Amino acid sequence: MAIQDPMTVHEARDQLARKQVSAVELARACLDRIGQVEDRIKSFVTLTPELALRQAEQADRRIAAGKAAPLTGIPAQIKDVICTKGIPTTCSSRMLQDYVPVYNATAVEKLLDQDVVLLGKGNMDEFAMGSSTENSAFFPTHNPWDLDRVPGGSSGGGAASVASGETLFSLGSDTGGSIRQPAALCGVVGLKPTYGLVSRYGLVAFASSLDQIGPLAQDVTDCALVLSAIAGYDPKDSTSLPLEGKDYTVGLDRDLPTSPLSKGGKKGGVRLGVPEEYFTEGMEAGTRAAVEGAINTLEGLGAEVIPLSLPTTKYALACYYIIAPSECSANLARYDGVKYGFSYQDTDDVWEAMEKTRQHGFGPEVRRRIMLGTYALSAGYYDAYYLKAQGARTLIQRDFAQAFQRVDALVTPVSPTVAFRLGERTDDPVQMYLSDVFTLPPNIAGLPCLSVPCGFDQGLPVGLQIIGPHLSEETLLRVAFAYEQATEWHKARPEL
């Protein structure tokens, strides 16, 4: 049986329910697609075809018994920083090249409870440190829209796999933009939930106060379906919010009125803020035009658009690149070659072995960030850097809180540019870091935000970022869905 192409999660769910396709047929279709394009995309670190087909057979039995969950039988990719029992979890690093977890991350366990089909693990920047998926210890991932360009990062494998039709959705992680930026550069939808809404148990830590798991998918409805499956309190995660899960698809009505964001057909419904600091001189003209066009569309749908200022935005980049490396330095201290992972053996000296383990096990970007973080936390510099960064974090949080007294959400670009060429920024870390200049502030404040396709520049996708106050995922999804229903950008697919 032929599989509709492209197929969203909700389309596949409907076809599975109507017996128009089986879970096994759906899994085989994805595996066939992987076989056709993976040698050019390189989105997977590990493929699990045998496991996928076994899980698909189990899903078909569940569907036949009338016990299907919303994601039963849906093929998925899992970012390789999220633990999967019995399946290698490498973080795209030589340090964990042979590491096989003995447990599942809570988010993975919740997906497996619904009989999701796991196709494999997604390539990424090593330990989620990067904006291009060029920092993988194994190979770079290529953007399906232009194979000479990056897919973004660090969840580049996930974004590329969804955009290329290799999988129906991917589970990624976002520390400073690692879901939204690759989603924007690959023309898919990416959602970073409120910090603590989705359990971090089983997520290999980069920066513990910033990391969050979230979905990448073809459209807003798919992201809502996945979020509904993975959100909710987890006692295994000390930062987990004490909230029960909910159905985030409620309110995504396809029979929308002409002005779905208005109040009774009049202005005064959803209020959207446009912060002036997110439209900088360094933005590409085509990217700016696409985002401004999207804002005009939202206004046409009945939203009230309000210009405003977030003056502490200028501190966000420096703040992030002190706090995140500091937490990275502490979290990655465990990789010493003694307990697990890569261990340097060509010496009889234990201290040399530990030093060489970290020297050879970590790639250059990871070593750079460990050094930055160690320096920021060292005696004599802690007050000058780390404490000041935490003070700036408070100011950034305050700016957002004040803005949300006036508006329901903020609309901004995701990235100042479209996807850049492979190798273009590898020797210029500052330019690479600037790729995330618009996505860092919400992470610093722990806010939910998503990226939705809003146009093209130079033949490459552009993303619109929607940011909301804590636990406003329903509002963000509603706004993004209304925009999506009024446009066709999310339906565009690369020719491979």
Describe what you observe in this structure.
The longest helix is centred in the C-terminal third of the chain and has 22 residues, at 382-403. This protein has a domain at 9-256: Amidase signature (AS) enzymes (Alpha-Beta Complex), CATH 3.90.1300.10. It is an alpha/beta fold. α5 (156-163) runs parallel beside α6 (180-186). Helix content is 37%, strand content 13%. It has an 11-stranded mixed β-sheet, sandwiched between helices.
User: What is the rounded Rg?
Assistant: 22 Å
CATH topology of one domain: Amidase signature (AS) enzymes
Q: What is the name of the CATH class of one domain?
A: Alpha Beta
Count up the helices.
15
How many beta-strand segments? Answer: 11
- Beta-strand content: 5-15%
Question: Mean pLDDT, as a whole number?
Answer: 95
Structural class: alpha/beta
Strand line-up of the largest beta sheet: 1-3-2-4-6-5-10-11-9-7-8
Q: How is the main sheet built? A: 11 strands, mixed
Which stretches of 5+ consecutive residues score pLDDT under 50?
A: none
Please summarize what this structure is.
The chain is an alpha/beta fold. 37% of the residues lie in helices and 13% in strands. Helix 5 runs parallel beside helix 6, helix 9 packs across helix 11 and helix 9 crosses helix 12.
Quickly list its features.
Amidase signature (AS) enzymes, 496 residues, globular, single chain, 13% strand, 15 helices, eleven-stranded mixed β-sheet, alpha/beta
Question: Secondary-structure blueprint of this entry?
Answer:
Layout: H1 9-17, H2 23-41, E1 44-47, H3 49-64, E2 75-79, H4 106-113, E3 117-122, H5 156-163, E4 169-174, H6 180-186, E5 189-192, E6 212-217, H7 220-230, E7 271-275, H8 285-300, E8 304-308, H9 316-331, H10 350-361, H11 364-377, H12 382-403, E9 409-413, H13 429-433, H14 440-445, E10 449-457, E11 460-467, H15 473-486
Helix pairs in contact: 2-3, 5-6, 9-11, 9-12
